[in-house]
Specification:
With 244 residues, the protein is of the alpha+beta class. Helix content is 41%, strand content 15%. The strands form three sheets. A four-stranded antiparallel sheet has the order 5-6-8-7, sandwiched between helices. Strands 1-4 form a two-stranded antiparallel sheet. Strands 2-3 form a two-stranded antiparallel sheet. Helix 5 runs antiparallel to helix 6. The chain binds flavin mononucleotide. The site of flavin mononucleotide (FMN) has 11 residues, from loops.
């Protein structure tokens, strides 16, 4: 989505700070460009304290969910489901299973990324049918997914689950960016007992296992110790090798 930002008065908005116009230059109309992706990535942080009085509007939650649905996955299997928990009692139980992390209860929504416990014939056949419905009954589609079944079905369930969980992490990354674009705060969370969360949400019975959590809400500016701290990232030189 393109965000057009209008600053009140004359200043222009850069990132999320208003700066004065440059004297002597034609500063153009009082409308500035959309934030870049990296502006959003700089704005977001793993929020430690959410404002319990604020609720994320449904249209913003829908935009984040849609980004999860659009996330790419290996062979397009989308081998995970998203559980959106608003129920306060259930979130309190999940918070307890997550070392009491209060973002789960102080935020308004909790996203639970739950991966398939393994790949099965039925699951891959359903993906095949989805492709056939969208693209036609092409031999190429059947050939591709028959080959996938020949590779995946004989593997250990744990290997298949680990592969499915990696796909859920791609969606987590995209959800984090989508939340930032919506100016919604979030916290990616691995610090929880997946067995406990599976049991609270009845996931194992559905052939699912919780992988990672993502509470949504709004930062409590005064109460969050992390907010004033600068972002910590390695330098480009220390992590990028260019092979020209
Ligand atoms: C997969 C994953 C799991 C994480 N688990 C937790 C967690 O359980 N609790 C928490 O407060 N932060 C958690 N974090 C937040 C990271 O510590 C944080 O993203 C990292 O230090 C970078 O900081 P930033 O996200 O604020 O830019 C997690 C992040 C990721 C990506």
């Amino acid at each position: 989505m393109c965000l057009l930002v209008v600053c009140l008065g004359s200043p222009y908005l850069v990132g999320h700070k208003c700066i004065p116009p440059v004297p002597g230059l034609d500063n153009g109309p009082n409308i500035v460009t959309a934030k870049t992706l990296n502006d959003h990535l700089n704005w977001r942080y793993a929020t430690k304290k959410m404002d319990a009085s604020k609720t994320v509007p449904q249209d913003k939650v829908n935009a984040i969910i849609e980004a999860v649905r659009l996330a790419p996955t290996s062979s397009g299997t989308q081998p995970f489901e998203l559980i959106v928990v608003t129920n306060p009692e259930i979130r309190a139980q999940i918070s307890e299973a997550a070392m009491g992390q209060a973002q789960i209860t102080d935020g308004s929504h909790l996203l639970v990324f739950a991966a398939w416990d393994t790949y099965t014939e039925d699951r891959i056949d359903a993906v095949t049918q989805l492709n056939v419905a969208a693209r036609g009954d092409l031999p190429l589609i059947h050939g591709y997914y028959d080959n996938l079944k020949a590779n995946y079905l004989p593997r250990e369930a744990e290997v298949n689950y680990a592969h499915a969980a990696r796909q859920a992490y791609i969606a987590l990354g995209i959800a984090l960016v989508a939340a930032a674009e919506q100016e919604v705060d979030s916290t990616p969370m691995e610090g929880f007992s997946s067995d406990a969360v599976d049991s609270i949400l009845g996931l194992r019975e559905r052939g699912l296992r919780s992988v990672v959590l993502m509470p949504l809400g709004y930062r409590e500016e005064a109460g969050d110790w992390l907010l004033p701290m600068p972002k910590v990232r390695k330098s480009r030189e220390s992590m990028v090798t260019e092979v020209a």
